[in-house]
Amino acid sequence: MKVTFGMTAVSGRHVVARLMAQDAFPADLDATLREAAGAGRFAGKPGQTFEGFTGSGADFRRIALAGLGDAIGDARLSAAERAGGALTAKYLTSGETTLAIDFAGSGLTAAEAAQVLLGAVLRGWRYDIYRTKLSAEQKVSLTEVIAVNAPDGTEAAWATESAIAAGSALTRELVTEPANVIYPESFVARCEKAFAGTGVEIVVLDKAAMTDLGMGSLLGVSQGSVREPRMLALRWKGADVAQPTAFVGKGVTFDTGGISLKPPAGMEDMKWDMGGAGAVAGAMLALALRKARADVIGVCGLVENMPDGNAQRPGDVVTSMSGQTIEVINTDAEGRLVLCDALTWVQRTYNPARIVDLATLTGAIMVSLGNEHAGIFSNDDALADGLLAAGKAVGEKLWRLPIGPAYDKLIDSPIADMKNVGPRNGGSITAAQFLQRYIEKDASGKQTPWAHLDIAGVVWADKPGATWDKGATGYGVRLLDKFVRDTLEA
Ligand code: BES
Ligand code: MN
Ligand code: ZN
Question: Distances in Å between the alpha carbon of 441 and those of 383, 446, 449, 452?
Fold first, then answer.
């Protein structure tokens, strides 16, 4: 979706949208329209829209009203975003090509107006490249949003928000593409293309390099697949600080479960088992495009988990890069086996000040939290609080769950240092405990601040939301970007 600025009066037959707070109809609104809206029980609540018409013949025009409600502060920003999203949802396949949003009389600030545009662009994202038989009515017609009478500063605010939209689009594309298209090497290739010219430094480890580094845990997952694994690091150095911040993503481009094969029903969902890596890539793109004043490294551990004559077996013992050994009880608990080597590598290579990992790690997190919140596990209250606040502000919500020694001992193994699964109960927590065993200590014995986000329930949506259609949500991009803004750049 293209966004343009500068117009002060709408010319042409575009749909014109007006934004209004609850019960606050624009003073210059056509009287019939206003009556019709009232009769249609439109009151300007958040997410509410109404469509009416003015004129006829050459003067005919569709007019849309979108509600902002009466929220204040951050809630007003999200109401603004919701209004933008509701407008593109309404006109995406309407036959209209251009939506003119007239901000006159809306009372919005520049930041809020930019949020309307962000909502509009995010909700307008679709990936129809494989749908060759769409009828004209099913095809996206809307290609442009014109901001009319935007408050001073909106264009500058949009320059920042558009970076988020681009990052989110990259994440959604990577998540949406099927696993015959996106596998470790092609994930890297897409990123190389997306990051060209952004100033992001890219490092790629191939199988030989990972073998040399002793990443036996990640390589054990990958050995049943004909697709070669990759480790991808994306560095945006927008500030000169002693230690960078690391984001680490699980990038299992398809998870069959391996020899511990998953049941067929719903297995196609496992194309999005790289949602953590996708979020990391998208967040890095957002940071680079808006030239964030922060030093951030995004690492994606990329493998495919397949059953095969060469696949690892339940009971196999592997040695991770850290030197710790793992008894692989269940080859379907592969995400942690990939992440542990990515965590060790990022710590030994870049010495980060803090680490946030994102992973579609457990089905159990959906039993706990459904599809509304992602789970957060952390060894550091300040880091956890920063992420919780960022998620709340942008609507990518988190809920903190406990970790501790009593859970940790559930993954002790009789033959190796640990096993890769604990008992059924508390499955998301023992997965987090496993990862925590790979967080290294400084000279004083303190672990690096670390947070693990289990995003299995929020990467993919069965129904449309305020700023996404059904399918890939892009979860994580805005959360990480907001965290960087409020914590690293503040
Ligand atoms: N990728 C899955 C988790 C998952 C399940 C994500 C459903 C999204 C939707 C993960 O690799 C997995 O298979 N986890 C197992 C762990 C178990 C074997 C301990 C699970 O959750 O069943
Ligand atoms: Mn699995
Ligand atoms: Zn998985």
Answer: 16, 5, 10, 17
Give the helix ranges, DSSP H, for 196-257: 207-213, 216-222
User: What's the pLDDT tens digit per position in 355-406?
Assistant: 999 999 999 999 999 999 999 999 999 999 999 999 999 999 999 999 999 9
Residue 127: φ, ψ to 5°: -130, 90
3-state secondary structure of 218: helix
| Residues, Cβ < 5 Å to ion ligand 2 | 255, 332, 334
Three-state SS for 146? Answer: strand
Judge contact between 183 and 304, C-beta under 8 A. yes
- Catalytic residue (choose from 336, 419, 478, 482): 336
pLDDT digits (tens, 9 = 90+) for 41-99: 999 999 999 999 998 888 889 999 999 999 888 889 999 999 999 999 999 999 999 99
Q: Whose CA is nearest to atom 16 of ligand 1?
A: 333
Task: Calculate the alpha carbon distances from 265 to 254, 309, 332 in Å.
Answer: 15, 24, 15
How far apart CA 336 and CA 342 sit, in angstroms, is 10
Local structure of 252: helix, strand or coil: strand
Tell me the CA–centroid distance for residue 268 and ligand 2, in Å.
13
DSSP per-residue letters across 47-113: T-EEEEEE--GGG-EEEEEEEEET--THHHHHHHHHHHHHHHHHHTTSS--EEEEE-TT----HHHH
> Mean of the pLDDT values across residues 456-468?
97
Q: What is the rounded CA–CA span in Å between residue 331 and residue 61?
A: 60
Span from the CA of 228 to the centroid of ligand 3 (angstroms): 17
Return the C-alpha torsion angle 426, 432, 438, 442, nearest 10.
-110
11 Cα: distance to centroid of ligand 1 (angstroms): 53
* pLDDT at residue 370, as a whole number: 98
Strands 61-69 and 49-54, by their bridges, are antiparallel
pLDDT-derived band at 284, boundaries 50, 70, 90:
very high
Residue 10: pLDDT band (50, 70, 90) is confident
Ordered by where they begin, the domains of the chain are 2-153 (3.40.220.10), 163-488 (3.40.630.10)
Confidence check: pLDDT of 11 > 80:
no
pTM: 0.98
Let me know if 220 is exposed, middle or buried by CB neighbors in 10 A (0-12, 13-18, 19+). buried
Alpha helices in 109-195 (DSSP H): 110-123, 154-176, 184-195
Residues near 96 by beta carbon (within 8 Å), at least 6 away in sequence: 14, 15, 62, 141, 142
Report the greatest alpha carbon distance in the chain.
82
- Establish whether 262 is a catalytic residue: yes
pLDDT average, residue stretch 312-337: 99
The mean of the pLDDT values for the chain is: 97
